[in-house]
Amino acid sequence: MSSPPSTIPEAPGAWPVLGHLPALLRDPLGFLSAVTERGDLFRIRLGHNTVYLATHPEIVRTMLVSGAADFTRSKGAAGASRFIGPILVAVSGDSHRRQRRMMQPGFHRGKLDHYVISMSAAAEETADSWRPGQVVDVPKMASDLSLAMITKALFQSDLGAAAEAELRTTGHDILKVARLSALAPQLYTSLPTAAKRHMGRTSAAIREAVTAYRADGRDHGDLLSTMLRARDAEGNTMTDDEVHNEIMGLAVAGIGGPAALTAWIFHELAHDHLIEQRLHAEIDTVLGGRLPTSADLPRLPYTQRLVKEALRKYPGWVGSRRTVRPVRLGEHELPADVEIMYSSYALQRDPRWYRDPEKLDPDRWESKETTRDVPKGAWVPFALGTYKCIGDNFALMETAVAVAVIASRWRLRPLKGDRVRPVAKATHVFPDRLRMIAEPRTPAIPRGHAPADASLEAAARPKELPEP
């Protein structure tokens, strides 16, 4: 690795030899937020290696958008390929362009609308499983629900029933293995963990589903059918191995973010009764106790603003890129083959870009006027540019459905004695030790309320919330 440019200041708090590793291991969120207040670009020492931390929106936007050709994925992204294969979230360049083209049809707006039915069914299954007074482990509940929503979107035919059941049983093990392979590849290779053994059974079930779907030949309206029909620029379809790998990748990439977001929303609702009342009023008026359909989502603007604001306050904590040639960022020159980190968590809580950032304020997103002063590089929960998350709208829709269904039937109240704090897990920020008591509620159906006209569903599309 090239020697660090001397013009870039070193972040405070480095230890001899270890550098900033102790600070990052002890409190990564606090460390990154504190550094953000001191400047725009810093050197961080991780033992003998040097990485850089970009803390200004303009620099982050240069990395991700305007200067994206000078950057590629970080070396850490290769961790996903160690145990799955060259999946969309890990590859770069031509491979990424081909695989994104193949995966994109499964995330088009019309497909997302179709998934709402299965998302609502998964959320109802969760809500129906509770009893009054039950203590709910909210992060686990949200993770289980997120996994259920993904698997129901993947497999909507009985041909995939076994694969769906296996993924719902072992999905969290897959996530653990993904983290281990990224953080400690040598340990991952040599350690015979139970999670790795479970993965073999799940992998076999997915392969059987792919084979069955391909032999059946019908379009079942799910993600698996869409992947099997997709073609690249040369007209080639994905191989069975590629489809299998992307399904595994979706399970890894799709659990953490929506799960963390859903958990934080119910934590916030329990501490802000005005927001909770406005949410309940909207979902009761629009849904009247029904499960939401895609036609309902444009009629739930406050619910969508709540989701977006929670994503602003609790996004993933770190992203990174690697330079492929010497680049200029701000006033500094950096050599090729260096890693540059940025923190959505720190950027989106920075008072320079968001007024009163610690306050959860859904009305922050009421119109483009209310966000006109927010720099575009200060809104990066799904990254930007070439490698922006392909499932961003899926995640937002999934969370809105989960919140609408559960909040229409239950209030979750804090459990006395629990001290909830944010903790970094992989790239996501989860609430630690968040247990809540389930209290049933009956939707207040306004006089004259009528169910949504089903004929609107095909034409309606979820409202696009303003981005900075």
Can you describe this structure?
This protein has 468 residues and is α+β, with helices and mostly antiparallel strands. The chain folds into 2 domains: 1-85 and 317-347, Uridine Diphospho-n-acetylenolpyruvylglucosamine Reductase, domain 2, CATH 3.30.43; 100-314 and 378-456, Cytochrome P450 (Cytochrome p450, Orthogonal Bundle). It is 46% helix and 12% strand. The chain has 16 helices and 12 strands. The strands form 4 sheets. A 5-stranded mixed β-sheet has the order 1-2-8-5-3. The longest helix has 30 residues, at 240-269. It starts with 20 loop residues before the first helix and ends in a 28-residue tail after the last strand. The model is unreliable at 447-463 (pLDDT under 50).
Summarize the entry for a quick read.
Heme binds at residue 389. By secondary structure, the protein is α+β, with helices and mostly antiparallel strands. The chain has 16 helices and twelve strands.
Key features?
468 residues, alpha+beta, Uridine Diphospho-n-acetylenolpyruvylglucosamine Reductase, domain 2, Cytochrome p450, 2 domains, five-stranded mixed sheet, three-stranded antiparallel sheet
